[in-house]
Write a structure and sequence with these properties.
Blueprint: H1 2-21, H2 25-36, E1 39-40, H3 41-48, H4 52-64, E2 68-73, E3 76-81, H5 84-100, H6 102-112, H7 115-118, E4 120-121, H8 123-132, E5 136-139, H9 143-148, E6 155-156, H10 159-162, E7 175-178, H11 186-196, E8 201-204, H12 208-213
Parallel strand pairs: 4-8, 5-6, 5-7, 7-8
Antiparallel strand pairs: 1-3, 2-3
Helix pairs in contact: 1-4, 3-4, 5-6
């Protein structure tokens, strides 16, 4: 019996490492970023607003838990999710939190209360519109994420460049912006900028993570 208890405790210690890895909001953010594409530590630091040293510290915790791994490309080292199960675990974590925590719904409702969030297009609508050329599909994620994979017919203009590239957008055509996922704010901010400048704009109801997870078509590589 004592041996069985000892084995059970050791197993639970291993399971707890996963819980520890998810116990920090910044580590969840890093996993969210890696759901988009593999990234160097410097890019993860820039995307998350952390220092390189702090980002490296969190990545080592995620690596110890077996959630991320590294791959060398020339002189660069890229971090990536260990496998698709990790992406599924992140999705499950958010779904459970959304269903069990009133605070998640309260905070998320702030997105829906913004006027720019009301104009939404769901996945099926966007696929239909994009294939027929009825809308201009705008990817406002960072360029490395677009280059890794994006929605068919999408054009990349990262959010930080949007205001200086408005002349590249088709006047009079409806624009549908999308970003990383359900709780990402980039598309909302893009729609706000577009509307302030006279464009007819909406956002994809969810984001690229949900689009790809649903098995919808994606394009790899820049266009």
């Amino acid at each position: 019996m004592a041996i069985c208890c000892e084995i059970k405790d050791k197993l639970n210690d291993q399971f707890a490492q996963i819980g520890h890895a998810f116990s920090c909001s910044k580590r969840i953010e890093l996993l969210d970023l890696l759901c988009q594409c593999p990234k160097r530590v410097e890019m993860l630091a820039e995307n998350s607003g952390m220092s390189v040293a702090n980002t490296s510290h969190h990545l080592q915790i995620l690596r110890t838990a077996g959630l991320v791994e590294t791959k060398r490309d020339g002189t660069s080292i890229f971090y990536r999710l260990a496998d698709s199960q990790v992406a599924g675990l992140i999705c499950l974590l958010k779904d459970v939190a959304a269903s069990r925590s009133a605070n998640v719904e309260r905070i998320a409702s702030a997105l829906r209360d913004q006027p720019e969030h009301f104009a939404v297009v769901d996945r099926d609508q966007l696929l239909k519109y994009a294939n027929s050329g009825e809308v201009f599909v705008l990817d406002v994620r960072p360029e490395d994420e677009f280059n890794a994979a994006h929605i068919p017919h999408a054009v990349s203009i990262p959010l930080e460049r949007l205001e200086s590239h408005l002349n590249a957008l088709p006047p009079g055509q409806k624009i549908v912006a999308y970003c990383r996922g359900r709780y990402c704010m980039l598309a909302n901010m893009a729609v706000k900028i577009l509307r302030q400048n006279g464009f007819h704009a909406a956002r994809l109801e969810e984001g690229f993570f949900e689009w790809r997870s649903a098995g919808l078509p994606v394009v790899s590589g820049s266009v």
